[in-house]
């Protein structure tokens, strides 16, 4: 191929990371192509719980999540379209002494990282959230919390991307990438090749097979997070409620539906998606929810589903250039990626546009496993190596 | 934690105790296969052969009661375990077994969860009624044709005092005749089909003389009461606020589209029974990710099956109207075929013989299906302000706007508009919403090709909304199996 | 408390009746009837309102599919078409 690539950047993967990256690259003056196997934001970015909380965010990501929270809260301004974002109080509950210990430790670490979390008494918690049961013995309170209607993400980003002049290839499955003169050519299932001077792989749980196209082995674990929603009911709560372990996220939307999540595991994989629930896990998740907000018992369960979340070996993001592959980037593996995604993807856009990001990226070298011929070897950094010491939950 | 009822374990489970499911369960049980037969209703029979409540039984009658009683006796004699009054809310397949979660309903007091496990599963969930939206179809007093048959047959009451019957297919005459018998005044019958359409179905009708005679009896009853069917007539609008006051009827063309500029007729009434055909209930086969095909003549989307009712998913079978709408008689035969295949697959019977060519019952069912097929031209004529999704009040204009904003498949439409996101989970609006998208998307391949591209709703549990209180019961916090904490 | 006379009263004579209350009004139902059928027979087809536009809704499919007739029946949200009317039952429209 001798003609220069058509695009300045080709982004593969149209979730919240890929969409944000493509949007800011396009607004930065680049000719951008965004390739997505299905419609935009219909995997994890469209089916997650929409929680925008600090109390489930990894400590090292708090500075990013706080900035991302501001972006979500002002989505109408920078995105130009509504994602149904509500900013409200957040509570993380402890029901037992052991959970109180975990909560105290974790809230402390997150506070050190910048999240304005206070430990409050059950009475104070109930004043903040009148829907609360009498079961909590301690609560973490954070005024920087809230939620989006995740199912609106695709509509909002699609409109913004079209307005920004990005070229969208939806329902176009990328099947491979080859370096070409002046960049990279992405092959899609219908045989077309879409070439760009820069390449960004934003494939969520599919990041691992995408990197393999370039001979890079970046192991990505697939979490199959279960979610449930009630039908519309009169108000039962007004804040975002979680628990010390992070295994509950609960909020009621303006339309009266309540979304119940927390990362309980359903059944699924990369090929088939989240294809089956585990009824015991669903019932367990619902019991935990009703233990926190008893009025939920009067609601009916309307729908349950599962979405795939990517987790790297150390459960920290992979955001940066691929070693030895100039102008080929990855962006993914962000824990609670919906919360922090827009800010982290914007950082990468700044870097790809030649700027200096406000906060550091997450170089991927640490996560790379040896080439496939040495398959089976572990990544160089053991899981949880950067986790704060002393967490009673560990 | 409260002691939950232990799982019921069986070799085979059958969901749906209509003609197909009850027959299959009886054959399986007779052959010595442990079989659980699950149904929402209190007794087998399905919708067509539904058992009336005991207190109304003395007033019931007719061939469908006799056929239903025969089916009920067959199930009872065969030794299948019947789980009646059980609403299936989840079906999963793991490790070679199906797990079926139901809520049993003992009349409000002892409702609670129950689990059935089985190696083989037959889905015989029948059909749902399709009603093509029109202005005012959400007005109280407007009900489905199938709903009207339920009121007439199992509740022994007419849907109203002054009734309009409208739509397509054989249920029109059945409902009109039944309502007359129940003492209602039938003020209009509006049939999308014309005399020529019915004439085309005549050969298939002739192959089922008993059913044809019943149909003729319904028509005769209508004529005796002075009710003349209005052919090629459709509902333009229903009027009224808290209750139905009038229906506006107008002529339609051969494709079911309203004839523009033609005069309409306003008929005062307090009930409208309206239906535009049946669609296979595919919730469970979709949930289990079996392959489906779109076949407009057999009701739309249906699970792909071989001629022995095997779906594309291992050990999962589908029979009866849920596998393609062909009617009760064809469903009986399909139940026999499914059971034969299940026995063979268990190593307990010979390989099923290839299905004979289309039976008379199937030809009859197919002819009725053609009369009541979904008509793209009728859907295309839906006015922009008409509510399509009754749960979420999503209008046709909003669906068109979502298409313009980039929603080209049914699930993206759901995200963009909440169409199908309400408690009915898109069962009522799905066909109309998909057809509206397909009409916009349709290229050279036509509307059916576009329907395939638009797809179906992804199957989701719960299959019916479940009260949380009943689902989670009483429990101790310490017994909740909370997973390990997320990393910090 | 108002007493609603069922228009199909002549049909009620032959079978037992049960009385329940719907939004505070006493309603007569034929034994064996569903709550939805009883309310239709009593001339009360509007059972609830649509959530977005607040428009009246009544029973539509009568087979537990469409969820348009969901009411609070003895404190539990259930489709009125799937619940048999019982004496003393308390039935309320959803707000």
From TrEMBL, chain A:
Highest taxon, organism lineage: Bacteria
GO molecular function: oxidoreductase activity
Gene3D superfamilies given in the database record: D-Amino Acid Oxidase, subunit A, domain 2 (3.30.9.10), FAD/NAD(P)-binding domain (3.50.50.60)
Span list, region Disordered: 373-394
InterPro entries the record matches: FAD-dep_OxRdtase, FAD/NAD-bd_sf
UniProtKB keywords: Oxidoreductase
Residue ranges of every copy of the FAD dependent oxidoreductase domain listed in the record: 8-351
Oxidoreductase listed as a keyword: yes
SUPFAM superfamilies assigned: FAD-linked reductases, C-terminal domain (SSF54373), FAD/NAD(P)-binding domain (SSF51905)
GO CC terms, sorted: cytoplasm
Transmembrane segments: none
Name of the protein in its database record: Glycine/D-amino acid oxidase
Natural source organism: Rubrimonas cliftonensis
From TrEMBL, chain B:
Highest taxon, organism lineage: Bacteria
Annotated CDD domains: GlpA-like_Fer2_BFD-like
Domain BFD-like [2Fe-2S]-binding residue range list: 387-438
Keywords: Oxidoreductase
One GO MF term: oxidoreductase activity
Record's keyword annotation contains tRNA processing: no
Transmembrane portions of the chain: none
Signal peptide stretch: none
InterPro entries: BFD-like_2Fe2S-bd_dom, BFD-like_2Fe2S-bd_dom_sf, FAD/NAD-bd_sf, FAD/NAD-binding_dom, Metab_Enz_Cyan_OpOx_G3PDH, Opine_Oxase_asu/HCN_bsu
SUPFAM superfamilies associated with the record: FAD/NAD(P)-binding domain
Residue ranges annotated for the FAD/NAD(P)-binding domain, each copy included: 13-326
Cross-referenced PANTHER family: ANAEROBIC GLYCEROL-3-PHOSPHATE DEHYDROGENASE SUBUNIT B
Designated name of the protein: Thioredoxin reductase
From TrEMBL, chain C:
Transmembrane segments: none
Oxidoreductase among keywords: yes
Molecular function terms from GO: iron-sulfur cluster binding; oxidoreductase activity
Gene3D superfamilies named among the record's database cross-references: 2Fe-2S iron-sulphur cluster binding domain, sarcosine oxidase, alpha subunit, N-terminal domain (3.10.20.440)
SUPFAM superfamilies registered for this protein in UniProt: 2Fe-2S ferredoxin-like
Keywords: Oxidoreductase
Domain of life of the native organism: Bacteria
InterPro entries, per database record: 2Fe-2S-bd_N (IPR042204), 2Fe-2S_ferredoxin-like_sf (IPR036010)
Protein name per its UniProtKB record: Sarcosine oxidase subunit alpha
Naturally occurring in which organism (per UniProt): Rubrimonas cliftonensis
């Amino acid at each position: 191929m001798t003609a220069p690539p058509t695009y300045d950047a080709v982004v593969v993967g149209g979730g919240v990371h890929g969409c944000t990256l493509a949007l800011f690259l396009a607004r930065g003056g680049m000719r951008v192509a965004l390739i997505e196997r299905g419609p935009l934001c219909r995997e994890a970015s469209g089916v997650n719980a929409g929680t925008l909380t600090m109390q489930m965010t990894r400590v090292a990501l708090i500075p990013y999540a706080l900035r991302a929270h501001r972006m979500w809260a002002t989505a109408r301004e920078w995105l130009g379209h509504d994602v149904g974002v509500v900013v409200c109080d957040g509570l993380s509950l402890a029901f037992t002494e052991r959970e109180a210990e975990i909560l105290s430790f974790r809230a402390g670490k997150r506070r050190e990282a910048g999240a304005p979390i206070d430990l409050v008494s059950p009475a104070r918690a109930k004043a903040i959230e009148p829907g609360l049961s009498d079961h909590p013995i301690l609560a973490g309170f954070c005024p920087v919390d809230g939620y989006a209607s995740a199912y609106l993400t695709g509509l909002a980003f699609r409109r913004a991307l079209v307005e920004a002049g990005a070229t969208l290839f939806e329902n176009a499955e990328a099947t491979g990438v080859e370096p070409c003169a002046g960049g990279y050519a992405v092959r899609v299932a219908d045989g077309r090749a879409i070439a760009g001077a820069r390449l960004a792989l934003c494939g969520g749980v599919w990041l691992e097979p995408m990197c393999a196209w370039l001979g890079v082995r970046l192991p990505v674990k697939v979490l199959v997070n279960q979610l449930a929603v009630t039908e519309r009911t009169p108000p039962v709560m007004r804040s975002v409620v979680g628990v010390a372990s992070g295994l509950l996220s609960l909020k009621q939307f303006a339309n009266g539906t309540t979304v119940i999540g927390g990362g309980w595991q359903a059944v699924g994989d990369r090929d088939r998606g989240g294809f089956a629930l585990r009824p015991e896990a669903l019932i367990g998740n619902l019991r935990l929810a009703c233990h926190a907000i008893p009025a939920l018992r009067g609601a009916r369960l309307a729908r349950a589903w599962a979405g795939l979340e990517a987790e790297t070996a150390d459960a920290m993001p992979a955001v940066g250039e691929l070693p030895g592959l100039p102008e080929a980037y990855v962006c993914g593996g962000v824990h609670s990626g919906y919360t922090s995604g827009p800010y982290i993807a914007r950082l990468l856009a700044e870097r790809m546009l030649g700027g200096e990001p406000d906060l550091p990226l997450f170089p991927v070298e640490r996560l790379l496993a040896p080439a496939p011929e040495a398959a089976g070897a572990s990544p160089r950094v053991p899981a949880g190596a950067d986790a704060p010491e002393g967490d009673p939950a560990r | 934690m409260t002691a939950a009822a232990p799982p019921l374990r069986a070799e085979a489970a059958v969901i749906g105790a209509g003609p197909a499911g009850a027959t299959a369960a009886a054959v399986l049980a007779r052959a010595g296969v442990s079989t659980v037969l699950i149904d929402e209703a209190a007794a087998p029979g399905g919708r067509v052969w539904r058992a009336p409540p005991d207190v109304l039984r003395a007033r019931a009658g007719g061939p469908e009661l006799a056929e239903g009683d025969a089916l009920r006796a067959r199930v009872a004699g065969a030794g299948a375990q019947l789980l009646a009054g059980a609403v299936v809310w989840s079906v999963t397949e793991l490790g070679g077994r199906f797990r079926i979660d139901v809520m049993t309903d003992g009349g409000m007091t002892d409702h609670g969860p129950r689990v059935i496990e089985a190696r083989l599963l037959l889905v015989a969930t029948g059909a749902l009624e399709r009603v093509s939206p029109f202005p005012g179809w959400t007005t109280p007093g407007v009900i489905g044709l199938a709903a009207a048959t339920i009121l007439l047959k199992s509740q022994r009451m007419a849907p109203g005092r002054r009734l309009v019957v409208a739509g397509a297919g054989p249920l029109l005459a059945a409902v009109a005749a039944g309502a007359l018998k129940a003492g209602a005044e039938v003020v209009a019958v509006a049939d999308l089909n014309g005399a020529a359409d019915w004439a085309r179905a005549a050969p298939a009708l002739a192959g089922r003389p008993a059913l044809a005679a019943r149909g003729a009896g319904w028509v005769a009853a209508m004529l005796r009461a002075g009710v003349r069917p209005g052919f090629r007539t459709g509902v333009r609008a229903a009027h009224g606020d808290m209750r139905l006051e009038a229906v506006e009827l107008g002529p339609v063309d051969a494709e079911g589209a309203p004839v523009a500029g033609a005069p309409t007729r306003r008929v005062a009434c307090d009930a409208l029974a309206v239906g535009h055909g049946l669609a296979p209930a595919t919730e469970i086969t979709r949930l289990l990710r079996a392959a489906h095909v779109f076949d407009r003549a057999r009701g739309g989307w249906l699970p792909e099956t071989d001629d022995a009712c095997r779906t594309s998913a291992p050990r999962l079978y589908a029979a009866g109207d849920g596998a393609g709408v062909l009617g009760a008689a064809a469903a009986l035969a399909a139940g026999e075929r499914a059971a034969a295949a299940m026995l063979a697959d268990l190593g307990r019977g010979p390989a099923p013989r290839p299905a004979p060519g289309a039976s008379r019952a199937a030809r009859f069912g197919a002819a009725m299906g053609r009369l009541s097929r979904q008509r793209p031209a009728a859907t295309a004529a839906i006015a922009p302000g008409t509510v399509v999704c009754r749960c979420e009040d999503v209008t046709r204009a909003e669906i068109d706007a979502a298409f313009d904003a980039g929603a080209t498949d049914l699930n993206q439409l759901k995200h963009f508009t909440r169409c199908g996101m309400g408690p009915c989970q898109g069962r009522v609006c799905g066909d109309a919403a998909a057809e509206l998208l397909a009409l916009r998307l349709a290229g050279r391949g036509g509307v059916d090709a576009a329907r395939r591209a638009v797809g179906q709703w992804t199957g989701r549990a719960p299959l019916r909304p479940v009260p949380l209180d009943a689902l989670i019961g009483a429990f101790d916090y310490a017994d909740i199996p909370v997973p390990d904490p997320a990393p910090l | 408390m108002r007493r609603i006379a069922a228009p199909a009263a002549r049909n009620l004579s032959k079978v037992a009746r049960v009385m329940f209350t719907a939004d505070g009004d006493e309603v007569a139902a034929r034994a064996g009837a569903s709550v939805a059928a009883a309310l239709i027979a009593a001339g009360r087809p509007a059972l609830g309102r649509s959530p977005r536009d607040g428009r009246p809704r009544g029973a539509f499919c009568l087979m537990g599919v469409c969820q348009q007739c969901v009411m609070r029946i003895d404190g539990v949200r259930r489709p009125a078409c799937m619940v048999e009317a019982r004496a003393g039952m308390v039935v309320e429209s959803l707000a």
